[in-house]
Amino acid sequence: MTTTPETKTVTLDEIQTFEGKYPKQLWYLFLSEMWERFAFYGMRGMLTIFMVERLLLSEKDANLKYGAIQAFIYTMAFVGGLFADKILGFRKSIFWGGLLMIAGSFTLAFSPEHLYYIGISFTIVGTGFFKPNISTMVGNLYKAGDPRRDAGFGLFYSGINIGALLGGYLCINVANHYSWNAAFSLAGIGMTIGLGIFIFTKRTLGPIGLSPMINKLSASKILLYDIMVYAGSLLVIPFILLLVTNTDYTDYFMYIVGPAAFLYIVYEMFKFNKIERQKLTAALVFIIFSIFFWAFFEQAGGSLSLFARYNLHHSVLGITMDPNEVNNSANSLFVIAFSPLFGLLWLWMSKRKIEPNTVIKFGLGFIFLAIAFYVFFYTRFFADVQGFTSLNVFTLAYLVITIGELCLSPIGLSLMTKLAPQKLHGMMMGMWFLASAYGQYAAGILGAGMATVNEKAPLTEKLMSYTEGYKQLAIYALIAGVVLIVVSPLLRKLMHDVH
Ligand code: GLN
Hints:
mainly alpha, Growth Hormone, Chain: A, 17 helices, 2 strands, 79% helix, globular, binds glutamine
């Protein structure tokens, strides 16, 4: 792609010197990502049930496959980020990822039983190209040091959760009332809208996200490289298919990819000067901590959903409610409600020069995580003799965990764009999501450790077993938070001018 008229119309400086709280381009990225998450969470919410009910897998196998799919998706984000940095640029990566996701959803819609694993494999590779790169583009809307960046990521994060909530709710509803074909089509339509919004608004992004090779190589050479990436990613699909169908390989995959990615980053780091290297080291420290955060947080999809199913009353604030519905939607709802408020809170504090620095925010993320798990533990003191306990207290824990998430997750996205040199933005954002892959993976192992060995154990015993596990998690989260706050002066030194 050479310089097109659209890239001339608006300069980077014009974009980054916007007035007000948010740049207008943020809204377009917000909407594209909202629809992508609609498709993603819509599909995610259907996977396990579909595998059990239609593919007739045992619950255990379906859970294992679900975990593996999640891990592969977030692992591919590293690859997607890397190729965006080196060859495609963010725009073409998003475009290509979106196309693959659309192909994946409609493949599933066409014949969910027969083409299930193929559709999923397309979606895995597509998400890898889309997800990290749209997040990185948000960071590019801001100048270095602009205090409005965290608030921007906060807003973007509510878009993510609006999509997640609607998609997660609607797709499974359509599957229940109409058909699986219609439900997967709905995910495909969501993704098409998301990509459509991106295509129609990308001219407002000026030079942001264009190929890194644009001024270095001829248009035909760039095209050749692009085609090689597109073809290469298509060739990866059969390999992903093999992994998804044989989850026995998942462990080996996880043992290899993370360390390999880590070593690759260390290799890349030596191409930069000392200050840039120290900033990247700080980014890696945040990434490593985030693995622990997600490993605890992602109990939501595993042990907490079982705890909700068996041990909770069906009433919140006097309203009858299925505890699993609360488990599946409370987090997104709280994010939607609080994320913009948090963004404004950071802005308000920054104007008064009392905004906590990023390390402290991260540490607070862990402290809130610890409090939330302590509240999950505390539900045992509200239990009746049969082992049922309060859904109100459980929901309160979700409120607290969400506050923790808002101190860490959008801030983490923002941090990656602050700490990495421009050339490595995509890769570091991919690495941030790779940490999520390991978090999800560890979450399954932790959850399995908390489950009672005897599935037929009385509810009171299950209650004790899960809540004891949550107490342990609370202690570890607290330790992580305290460690972060204690090492914050050192970490801040590594971060140099980034706050
Ligand atoms: N819920 C957020 C999203 O979907 C964060 C996911 C993650 O990093 N694990 O983007």
